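Fold it.
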Amino acid sequence: MMPALTAHARLLDDSRIRPWEWGLWGLAFALPALWPSHALLVNEVAITALFAVSLDLILGYTGIVSLGHAAFFGFGAYTAALFAKHLNPDPLFGLLVGTAAATLLGAVFSLSILRGSDLTRLMVTLGACLLLGELANKLDWLTGGADGLQGVVMGKGLGRFEFDLTGQVAAWYSLTVLLLLFALARRLVHSPLGLSLVSIRDNRLRAMAIGIPVNARLGLIYTLAAALAGAAGSLQAQTTGFASLDVFGLDRSADLLLMLVIGGTGWLYGGVLGAVAFKLLHSVISGWTPQYWTFWIGLFLVVLVMVGRERLFKPWTRFKT
């Protein structure tokens, strides 16, 4: 019994947030007040970080490559926007509804990733995203089509906090959701379930041989990743008051993969770090050269691959979760 207890205690310890992490999260929550002119950028980074963490759950911990992860982001965005416009403008209710809708969609689509090779999964996930994007375009009476869903007005958060034009309330709202879901995901990956996912990623046949229900675990983590992506999409629609076809865009899923290339996979802070780096590079470089900012980001990625992420981000590698 002692080894099991020791292993359980170690997993619990690994899932706890360290003191230095509280400092980083505290700084993140202080930024909208310290840097009010860029509160909207903080909000965008928080949403993108949550989206990147959702992809890392399946890519980093199970090895499932997806080019259509934006399907859940977009589905959550449209669901939350439609719910706010036609039923109830309360942000928390809308967030729960958008997340639940993406979770259900993820459960359905999880059946498609249980068979075939990595290339097959890549094409299936891409096809699912394109299908939803075209469906949103055709149902223009509901979604607004190419013009997007407009006129989304959100109510006050918790009945007190009204979304302002500067984006401070939106930034704190998105950061709070990011922190809560990040802590939940961290507890998940540092659990027996998380360890079984890593074993499936490393050797699926051996995992099956020792009795791990591989298909059930893959379906579960894919559904949970869809839920986090749907929450990110819901935040996007709620804090911008708008949902358009670009939420299903291929470039959104591709950018997500680039963020994980920058931050690294298999540790949840990789998605957060990658989102922060990518969005800051985008904001700064596009301010210098709006036409060629993609060239400089591409050059950065080339240098990153050639030099090695561990050398560029050496201080961070000691704190992998």
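Residues 25-249 form one domain.
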